[in-house]
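FAQ: What does the model actually see?

It sees only this:
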Amino acid sequence: MNSQADPSSFEASGVRPVDHPVVRTGRIGVLLMNLGTPEATDYWSMRRYLKEFLSDRRVIETPRLIWWPVLNLIVLSTRPGRKGRDYETIWNRDRNEGPLKTITRAQAEDLTSHLRAVAGDRVSVDWAMRYGKPEVGPRIQALLDQGCDRILLVPLYPQYSAATSATACDQAFRALMQMRWQPTIRISPPYHDDPVYIDAVVASMRRDLAKLDFEPEVILVSFHGVPKEYLLKGDPYHCQCVKTWRLMREAFGWPEDRFRISFQSRFGPDEWLKPYTDETVKSLAESSVKRMAIVAPGFTADCLETLEELDVENREIFLHNGGESFAYLPCLNDSEDGMRVIRHIVDRELQGWI
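And it is asked to produce this:
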């Protein structure tokens, strides 16, 4: 800047030149980030979504020379149609969107009301998906346009994994790399053992169990799986899942043979975290367990992996192998328990900013 600039070119306040572009600053942004959902259930919409998801090197670590032909010549030729039919069974037809999008939007709206009561209009809340829409980059830009020069990123994953929390943050960092004036960024940490989270999950489960017309002999706590190789490379996800399960079991006061852990949604030929959910459900039914419930505390919102994979596929596995009564207990979603967790995390991480 020219130190000899004509004083007449400055505003009366002397703060900036008359021709200086308008810059909005001084506000705080909160961006909730979840995994994603296709825009529709047709073949091409599913293909676009799956290609973005399965091309992520955080999700699939197989060398590209091997994975590229498998993905493009096999997976993307067969999987979109099948997954599209699965999504059809859970699709929110009123809004024409996947339930994950509906619920994440509702979580952001509730958080907006909460923060307005706490900090007035100083804080803006938005939400984005790592895969699909709304995209992370444009939503960060939208917060900047509102004058948010400090932004809290909130990956909606209680347990950290490179394939979930890290890749969501990667996408935010890619957007930041394109910005001349970057906002100050905070990232909320995983909350797998946070007492507020554990209490909310257990309280929600107790209420849902009280509504059943049977008492489960076994409760199965199912987490999304990842390849075992990721654990061996140092990913903390497995350990955090096990700790969540242990704290839940201790809160219930049930023995391990009645309160079990498993991992779902394996993909491909490699070994994933064990025990596998579908095999565990089948084994329970075959071992004369007649009544069971299943819950997925690693998901902050119900989605394909819970509403279709757990409540439909695994229900069928249990009933077809001798089981009689099966219940899927919903995720926290935008319930009061669920929002209690999200509000707690955001309030804590905004300390010093508001």
